[in-house]
Every structure is written in C-alpha cells, then in structure tokens.
Amino acid sequence: MPSIEHSEAVATGAVKPRRIAELALPAFGVLVAEPVYLLFDLAVVGRLGALALAGLAVGGLILTQVSTQLTFLSYGTTARSARFHGAGDRKSAVSEGVSATWLAIGIGVTIVVVMQLLARPVTELIAGGSDIAGEAEAWLRIALFGAPLILISMAGNGWMRGVQDTMRPFRYVVVGLAVSAVLCPFLVHGLWIAPHMGLPGSAVANVIGQGIAAVFFVYALIRDGSDLRPHPAAMRAQLVLGRDLIARSLAFQACFLSAAAVAARFGAASVAAHQLVLQLWNFVALALDSLAIAAQSLIGAALGARHADAARTLAWRITRWSSVFAVVLAAGFALTNSVLPGVFTTDDDVIAQTQLAWWFFVAIVPIGGVVFALDGVLLGAGDAPFLRTATLGSAVLGFLPVIWLSLAFDWGLVGIWAGLTAFMLLRMTAVVLRTVSGKWAIPGSDIQTRATAGVGELPETK
Question: Where do the TM regions start and end (predicted)?
C-alpha cells in the first residue's frame, strides 16, 4: 500500500522534486546501462579485427530490431500496473507483471525459433552476402537465445516502475551487465583458463548476463507471493495496448532509418556527422525519458486512485521540470558547439558537417523536454492510441517528406535535421493539445475502461 504521505501527495498533485528524482535517476541508470555495455563490447571485439567488428554490428542490429519493438512489455505494463498501485491494489499491480512475463516468454521463444530459421538469409541480406554475414550469423544464432531473457527484463522493469520501485530493476540490470562485462574479454580472447571463442564469445557473455537479470526479475515475482499462473484476459489487454505502441515504434524506425539512408548519400563526412549528432540526441532522449518514466508511474497511480484533477496538475508540474532540465542541457550544448564535436573526431570535414546539424539539435532539446514529459503523462494514462496516431501523423506530415525532399534538392544535413525539427514540433503540438483537453485523465484502476468510457468518473473496476 502507498504511504499516507505519498497518497496525500498524489491526491493533490504535489509530488516533490525529490520523489521525481528517486524514480527518474535509477530509471536513467537502466536506460544508459545497456548502451554503455555495448560500447565496452565493441572495444573488446574490436581487438579481433574489422571483420569481427562488422559481424557484431550486423548481428547486433538484427537482434535489436526484433526485440526493442516490444517496448509495450515495459511501458504498457507500467501504465496498467501503476493504475492498480494507485488504487491500493498491489496484488493486481504485480499480477500485471506476471502476465507481461508470460507474454515475454511466449514472444521470446517465438523470436528464437523464427529467427534461427531466418538467420542466414537475413544476415546475408543486410551484409550483402559477404564474409561479414558468416561472422554475424555465428554471433546471432547464440545471441538470439537472449531474446526471451531481454523481454522478461523489460516486463520486470514495467511492473516495478508501476509500483514505483525503480531501484531494484537498476540493481538487477547492472549486476547482469557486470557479469557480461567480466566474461566478455575472457571468452572472446581466451584469457586465463577460458576457451578462446572469438566473436561468439561475446554472444555467450551477453546471454549469461541477460539470464542473470531475468532470474532476478522472476525471483522478484515469486518473492512477492504472486499467483504465477497465466492470466489470459490481462494478457489480451496488454497485447491491445502493445499493438498501438509497436505501431508507434515502427514509425520511429522508419524515420531514423530514412534519415541514415539519405545522409549516407551525401558522403562519408555527412553520414559520420549525422551519426555523431544523432548519438548526442539519443543521450538527451534517454535523460529526458527517465523523467517520462517517472511521469508514467505517478500519473498512472493518481488516476488509479481516482484523482484526475491531481493527475492534470502533476502533468504540468513534471513538464515544467523536464523543460527546465532540457533548457539547461540545450544551453550546455550551445556553449560547447565549437569544442564538443572535436572530442569525437579530428576530421575537419566531419566537424564542418556537424555544425550544419548542431543548431537544429540545440533547438529541439527544449522541445524534447515538453514532448518526452507529456509522452510519459499520456502513456501513464494509457492513451496509447492517441500517441500512435500522433506519432504516425507527425512522421508522415513532417519528418519523412522533408527527409526525402532534402535528397531530391540536395539540402544535405540541413534538410535532414529540419525534418527532425518538424517532427518534434508536430509531436509537441499534438501532445500539448491533448493534455490541455483533459480527455486522457480518466480515473479508475483498470486501464481498459478507456475503451468504453468518456471523460469523467468511471464505475469502480478491479
């Protein structure tokens, strides 16, 4: 049950900044832990030579594409679990985690079976049938066994965020990645008594670490005394929510893959500069997304406790904090525009191309402060259908047309980043108008009541 102090804060929307930080900082740690480990993995494999590194890049891209589209296992579960948590029904909140975990196992096993059959043609398609495909296939066939484990961790993150426990997931993920980081150089290079496995050793280390994290998340459900049997009704409801979030994720993929393809056609310096600035944007997105995760949890709890007015107040309070944080970040990047690119490259052509995108990047950081916060608010409210439509509309009307026009008219990185700016402005307009309307703030412990209810009070559902 939530504490009396916390319940009063939820009821009034007066959640303190310290509480936001307690939720956001561990969530940020989870978000950045995997990218940091991947950099370490690249450094270890890189000592094997360019062929192994290329194989890891291709194999990693395929594994990422077949697993990260399923973010509804975390974000959707957070929204549903937070509603029950806010209503004081911890048993149902944790039960959402059980259902999400069964979905993770079922979907993960399906991915393993299907992708084992397709591993060779897919790697050959992406790598162009070269020696790189052989390296990538060897790595991928092992790494695929981690897919169910990755999805179990996503489900675990989801329900724990919903009950406002972000520290345990952080510990579980860090321990798993730490084990992988220790094993990776030993297995890849055959250090001490370990076998010399080469590139496949990286995949084995990954799967072992992912397995440890997954075991922790399953143990958390067992320790909580949950009924571990599948709950078909809850699983169907999560899949309905997942459908909208997957469509939204695919829109992002279409946009950024198009941007990379167009940047590549302007030459090596352009694509390198685009990737450099994009990685900085991805870091900013992770930082802002940690606040969005806090918003999800708190908004879901407020609505589950039937405090719709407090949820609206809290929505704008978190958005203000996110905006201030984003402005500070933008100011930092603006002040370092002549220095920071040089940290990543000494190529004068790349640095010159970086400057073409830099000020677009600086401009969209404050916009992102609003967009990410309100994304979290609407996700916490279970307003996934609206977010799906808004993202698809912004991509079709803003990002994609400008991206391809920049190729046709030779606008270079200016056109690409103008497209991203248009995409973010359209998304900001959509989520601000939706939040102002209040139509998302439907109270009740069961998120599925959104499908049949209008604005206002709902009958109590458990």
Answer: 20-40, 52-76, 97-118, 138-160, 172-193, 199-222, 245-268, 280-303, 324-344, 356-374, 386-405, 411-433
